[in-house]
Amino acid sequence: MSSRLFSLSLLLAALLLQGCAVSRAKIHQADLAVADTIDRQLTCQQADHCAQPSPLLQAADSALAQSTPEQPVHVVTLLDDSEPALAARVNLVRAARKSIDVQTFIWAQDDAGQLMLNELVQAARRGVKVRILADQLFSFNDLDLLDRLVRASVNLHVRLYNPTFHNARTPPLEFAAGVICCFMKFNQRMHNKLLLVDDSIGITGGRNYEDRYFNWDDDFNYVDRDVMVAGPAAREMADSFDLFWNHRRSVPLTHLRDLNKRILSDAEAPTWRPPQYRRPLRVAQVQQAAEDPSWLHAWLVAPGIEVGNVDYFSDMPTKTRAPKRARAQVFTRHIMHMIASAKREVLLQTPYLVMSDQAQKIFRRLHKRAEPPRIVVSTNSLASTDAFAVYAMSYKHRKRYLTKFGFEIHEMKPHAVAAAVDNELANLGMDSPTPAPETATPASARQARFHLLGSRGSSSRPAPLLSEGRRFGLHAKSIVVDDNFAMVGSHNFDPRSDHYNTESGVIVYDRHFADELRSSILRDTQPENAWVIAPRRPVVPVLTDINQAIGTVSEHLPLFDLWPFRYATSYDLKAGCQPLLASDPNFFNCYRPVGDFPDVALSPKLIITRLITAFGVGAKGIL
Length: 623
Known about the structure:
This is Phosphatidylserine/phosphatidylglycerophosphate/ cardiolipin synthase family protein. InterPro entries: PLD-like_dom (IPR025202), PLipase_D/transphosphatidylase (IPR001736). The protein is of the alpha+beta class. Strands 11-18-17-16-12-13-14-19-20-21 form a 10-stranded mixed beta sheet, sandwiched between helices.
């Protein structure tokens, strides 16, 4: 009875909160209070707002000057390594002459988040028009920070996308209430990532603004990827950003209930404060790199590739309100068209191998061809992911992926050699050595953020391991099709990306770029970096056939997938052997089975993974 009363109270509170928008009068009062106290100082009086010289922006100017509508010219740079990805952002912000637009899913208050936010504030104070659009659920979850940010500069404008119950913060109970009362609206998030400077050069891909996206977390970091695009495609980025910025779900800060109340109750207007970095030497090193001509040339200019056609795609902000409209899911539909057109090979890299119904149909048709294309998939293992609930759905459908779609699946190891090497290489060549760790906040002291089924939140932690050492998880989302064109973006190729979240990315129609991206993905599938998923070795033919038949029936049950002996498991390459396909007759001679969840210690997350595999089929769209 008490649980029913609690649920009823929660629902009633949710319905009340849903209607409690801030009145126009209070918005006007808060706007006046901000206008009276906002920082109007300009640190520069020059026409270019004291923009620093940048070879990246110079490349954009040159590409735009050479471009015609019939023959566009772009310079594209793959940002696989963490430090160049962050230094490129700092360099472009400092080089901005007119405008900076930033769109993101997560903005944390750690070193990486503070660094970028402070750089943007300083750019606004130079006179550059700066607009920040962040998804509310996992960004700026601090009223004190927002109270300072709203007054930091007259040229700085911040909006939060799809705020829960018109608030800047979402405590756990309001999270639960949002799920109960208005699931479709609450569950739709803005997953786009974009940094656009002067409408001429942009960075898009998988990275959010948090330490773990730039190899700055002490325990767990992401292997991620962006692409920097200079040229006419930046105009498409600008149009997309404007659509989101002007949409009614993008809410100015003074319109948020909790922040509005804070602003009106301030006895004294707070001012912008310099960041207090946990590891200031490391921050200084990136800032130094962002201004070092030789470093910029080696890591960001020389790797650039001049190409012709580049398309920037983004779903519409109205995606969940108009799912049948082609324009609402323009990016999702284009990705599906890319895959369906494959002739020889598809390389797919995604952190979450959970296929939507539409994707399953496409891969099933490809596999039924007389000469099906090769499908190579790079994804996470349970040991490398922080989204264990999502991984459970991938684990559940391994047999389908291997037999019906013909996938070659490689699951990332938590201590992947390539990840560790890439994230240290950019430190070489700096005048000062990589700084030693300063005072660190233990992982156990981090505030865990409530998130549905424990997955995909900015502070979620992966399952405990048997091994020790710094660990990595895959977060990059990319496709290469037939070596002809390639995509880098935010789309995870899963039901959530298909139907709920808005996504964005670029498609580059160039063989050289496709080859570079292909090499990057394949490197993550090498034996030192990933386990191979393959069928279990048949030991007793009849019993093996019976086990597989029971497992197939169990997998297709609507709720209760309880059979513990799965069709496939993880394999590691034996010393002295060369990598082989699972279909090779010598596969079992060169690979040894390492279990369904290698390197994962017995823990609640491991148990929950098993339970979600058994009972969680209905949650696939949510995950």
